[in-house]
Amino acid sequence: MIKLPYDFSMDKYGIHVRLVNESDAEFIVKLRTDPNLSKYIHSTDSDIQKQIQWIKEYKERENKGLDYYFIYLHDKTPIGVNRIYDIQDTYATTGSWICEKNLPVDFVIYTVIILREILFDVLEKKEDRFDVRKDNKKVIRMHKLFGSTLVNKDDIDCFGVLTKYDFSANKCKMLNYIK
Length: 179
Prior knowledge:
Elements: E1 9-12, E2 15-19, H1 25-33, H2 48-63, E3 68-74, E4 77-85, E5 91-99, H3 105-122, E6 127-133, H4 137-145, E7 149-153, E8 157-163, H5 164-178
Parallel strand pairs: 5-6
Antiparallel strand pairs: 1-2, 2-3, 3-4, 4-5, 6-8, 7-8
């Protein structure tokens, strides 16, 4: 299984992405405790020290190649975060996606594209298996625009799959859409 190096970073579409570290805790807490931004994600404690402890524990999973948490920056300013986790031989799960409010839509979509490029091209996975709150219609629609298939749902979530093939087939369309 391919593992990302501890100093992994990438520059693409005018965005710099790197792995989260403890100094990102305040930004993460700010995003994840904003009531409008965190409406469809698991709640986060507002205690920055608890977030730092969570990041320390995450870094152990990162070192084992089990979980990757990314922060996105534009002009050295943090704009969003998301994760790849439940990493298996042929698939992984993406999620914990949240971006600054009032961020231009192109940057929002670039963060999703970059995450999937890391998943499919760098980590060489064949599928992204994700879940989205049923009420989060905008994100469900975006996943469909990338070619994903919703495969199941329960009272709270929709569960989807995006293959590397479908992502590749629709990535150019999404890039053209935002240009």
